[in-house]
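Table S2 (text version). Query chain:
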Amino acid sequence: MAGSRALNRRVKRMEESGKPKPSLIAIWYGSFDEWVEQDVLPGVESGALEPDDIVDVVAVLRGCEALYAR
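Corresponding structure-token output:
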């Protein structure tokens, strides 16, 4: 009986480890797109962020987001 419970716990851990983990941006904002809408776009509109540079930064972070979610 104890062996079957240990096996069930082990299988559960293996299943959980295969699921993608959300990035910090997804945890903090709910999704990457929400972060862009809440922080990036207002920063560009106010002039706090340079539009040409932030496009590249967002693209790189989006690529990291895709790699992190694997």
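Notes on Table S2: The two ends are 35 Å apart (CA to CA). Residues 32 and 61 are 9 Å apart (CA to CA).
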